Amino acid sequence: MARHRKRPTLAHRLGALLATVLLLGCGSGTSTASKTSSTSTEATTTAAASSSTKAGLQQAKWASGVTITDGTGYVEYRSNGIPNHTRQSEYALPNNGVIVPDASTAHAGADPTVAQSYDFKIPTTPKKAAMTTGTSLGTIGVMISGAVLFNPYEGDANTVAIKSNFTVKDAAGKDVSFLDSCNGHPTPMGQYHYHALPTCVTATVDTPGGPSHLIGVAFDGFPIYGDRGIDGKQITASQLDACNGITSATPEFPKGVYHYVLLDTKDSTSSIRCFSGTVDSSLTARGGAPRP
């Protein structure tokens, strides 16, 4: 797979440095592992290697700000983290010292989103692990929009972001939401991310009544999709495993592939709660500091 996008202009090392800084709002205080990442649960399948995902990734509609470079057994994903869709001009931001805000502990502020310097090598022959690994707080996967995916939880590793969405009034009396209409928001430090199905992203690649197309890839290498099966029917949580995964045919993998599904729900099934595959810990460490 040849590189087909313009390389982001910011120094790559900045991304690694920013990843070590504690993220507020979606996590603040002392850096610790999330509740789900501290233990592993038994996987429903035995460890097994999958075929290469490179051909499917080639078909994805990567945003113009994303660079995909082919490597031996991996693709290198580079992005400035700015999604290719509109964002709110203001967001509900946590007051100083607040880990998990609500309407009484947040204020309306200008969108703090700033460019990142993402540079991740993601495996293209993902392997099912014998044990699943809980996703930590911070970046757990990358999306075709150029932004990244977080797990369902806020900074306490317990509060489901989409379930606890709220609004506050700005100076003009306008309602300003915590999560935007794409189920994403920036941390106060400026890292934009999704906590659930990014409907504004799926709208650019899917057709009404049709199947979901590839919208991202998790750090273990397994693809990420929206909530429609190959027949166009909506997928429900009961069809997925504990990590929000399923093996089935998709437009990019007609012979079938294990992949994660993001659901348009108001509970923890809205995002990936655990990795079914083997994941390099250096990816999660660089993707975003774990939050309390």
Summarize the structure.
The chain is mostly beta strands. Helices cover 10% and strands 27% of the residues. The protein contains four helices and 19 strands.
Task: Please give the structural blueprint.
Layout: H1 12-20, E1 40-42, E2 48-49, H2 54-59, E3 66-71, E4 74-79, E5 90-94, E6 106-110, E7 118-123, E8 127-134, E9 141-143, E10 148-149, E11 167-169, E12 175-177, E13 184-186, E14 192-194, H3 199-205, E15 214-218, E16 223-225, E17 245-248, E18 257-261, E19 274-277, H4 281-287
Backbone structural class: mainly beta
The helix count comes to 4
Indicate how many domains the architecture comprises: 1
What is the CA-CA span between the terminal residues? 38 Å
Fraction in beta strands: 25-35%
Topology as a string of helices (H) and strands (E)? HEEHEEEEEEEEEEEEHEEEEEH
Largest sheet: 8 strands, mixed
Poorly predicted runs: 2-24, 27-50, 288-292
List the strand order in the largest sheet: 13-14-10-9-15-16-18-17
Shape: globular
The total beta strand count reads 19
Describe this structure in words.
By secondary structure, this protein is mainly β. It has one domain (12-287). It contains 4 helices and 19 strands. It has helices at residues 12-20, 54-59, 199-205, 281-287, and strands at residues 40-42, 48-49, 66-71, 74-79, 90-94, 106-110, 118-123, 127-134, 141-143, 148-149, 167-169, 175-177, 184-186, 192-194, 214-218, 223-225, 245-248, 257-261, 274-277. The protein has an 8-stranded mixed sheet with strand order 13-14-10-9-15-16-18-17. Strands 1, 2, 8 and 19 form a 4-stranded antiparallel sheet that branches. A 3-stranded antiparallel sheet has the order 3-4-7. Mean pLDDT is 84; it is low at 2-24, 27-50 and 288-292.
